[in-house]
Amino acid sequence: MRKLIATEFLTLDGVMEAPGHDPHPDGKNAWALKYATEDQQQLKVEETLAADALLLGRVTYQIFASFWPTAPRDEGFADKMNSIKKYVVSRTIKEATWENTTIIGSAPAEEIAKLKNGPGGDILLMGSADLLNSLIPTDLVDEYRLMVFPVVLGSGKRLFRDASDTTHLRLVDSKALSSGVVLLTYERADESPSSKYVEDFAWTREQMQSFQAVQNPDRVLATVLFTDIVDSTRQAAELGDARWRQLLDRHDRTARASVEQFRGQFVKSTGDGILATFDAPTRALRCAFELNDALSGIGLAMRSAIHTGEIEIRDDDVGGIGVHIAARALGEAGGSQVIVTRTVRDLATGTDLSFSPLGSVGLRGIPGEWELFEASIN
Amino acid sequence: MRKLIVSEFLTLDGVLQAPGGADEDRSGGFEYGGWQHPYFDDLSAKTVIDGMNETGGFLLGRRTWEIFAAYWPTAPEEERAYGDPLNTLPKYVASRTLREPLEWNNSTLISGDVAAAVRDLKQQSGKDLQVIGSGNLVQTLIASDLVDEFRLMIHPLVLGSGARLFGDGVPRRPLELIESIVSTTGVLIARYRPA
After folding, report:
1. ipTM
2. How close, in Å, is residue B76 to chain A by CA atoms?
3. 3-state DSSP helix/strand/coil percent for chain A, to nearest 5?
4. Which of these, B56, B24, B19, B27, lies nearest to B152 by C-alpha position?
5. Nearest CB to A152: which of B34, B160, B173?
6. Between chain A and chain B, how many beta carbons pairs sit less than 8 Å apart?
7. A-chain residues within 8 Å CB-CB of B156?
8. Could you read off the pLDDT of A292-344 as tens digits, one per residue?
9. Single pTM value for the model
10. What is the DSSP letter of B171?
């Protein structure tokens, strides 16, 4: 199959319009001319001599057609431009005067696909910003040869700005020319490469929201309780969907009742646990112990974490760093444990409560070290 | 006088938005966050780390500062080569909405005339200043012609949408290519300075 190769002059900001004397809407044309060096010239000559046909949009075709027939005949380049087979995509051009031209008036993608399947060598697409951008989503372009010029233009038609989805490419060659122009040759690729760094630098929505909440003046002090049924995946598998669903419903009812009993706000069910807020740490602690007892009565083990800190109240949810800390602390809790931060230990009152230190841990996404304690009740 | 260096991850169509994570910056409905990961290789890592080690301080926009401040203070141990310079060196954050004191170590707020403040910073002695990300701030810096060097890592990927380094309407500016190398994953690492 014939390859379709798009060969373009681009500015560093991706503009491909008016590299030569052709008009630019803001008069910024001729941006490529001062970088015309011998090595660049040589590459263009070789590329054109190697091509079998040109595919052009109307504007580029008209510029070429008015120049090449009377151009100076150096190195056989003008001869080649004049004699080579040319296809111009245009609904308005009815008759082409430049030799060896065929007009593609409608269904350009289909016509070009047919051309590529026919006999002959590679087809070069030069300039022709609108045509090229219309072809990017069709997968018809096999190769991009981009000469990136060391200039920023700020306006003009850009390559790739009509792209509506991700296009993966593979860089097959790069060459810096003496003028500072970089020639980049890309082929289509099906997907991005894999990298051992893929997991790095992953900022989660949770981290971002927590951090932004810190900047938010609308926040309140609250005690946050997170719970989670221990080993829920295994239990769900053992019990089957229907029975597990029943058990979860009972869990939710029991949890709501306990939260209410200790004057908390039931914020939401998290699937196999709950998130609730309380106005005092001691009430959150007593709720957790009560819930532990109640759930063990229906054969469920629960772990929980409690933190007192600033949270952000949203419509029917809560957020902010205080919530984030409690959620992260829950990750440190083992079966049936009630884990609390130091803040909770310092604020909680009641001679029947005791706290054993678990040491300091870093909670991912949260600055500093956090001292955690396991709470128990006599 | 020290230089102001703008370091950016870019797609081939010039997008700089949210290279680092899916939820890093979804403004404008941007869905491709995290596009840079698959291309990061040892040469890319070395380029970024070397750049940081030459840096005397970071100049950041509000959003990038927030993203970094949320991540780097507790970043994993194996990322210390990036985290240490970011956590310890001075950071100047341009914002009209942030208020001091700023939570992240060694951060200073620039709340007034950014161009004037950056001119002052450049006059100070010390190692070069570096801008990372900060797509909005960079527009101001480019428009005020304050950028002394662009270090661009241009990825073999087209997204078709997202905030760009060089937005429409930036002034015409001839540049000079100082260096260009290519990573194993086809990322062009190119350095330009104003010509």
Report:
1. 0.92
2. 8
3. 35, 30, 35
4. B19
5. B173
6. 175
7. 168-171, 186, 189
8. 998 888 888 899 999 999 888 777 788 888 898 999 999 889 888 999 999 99
9. 0.69
10. P
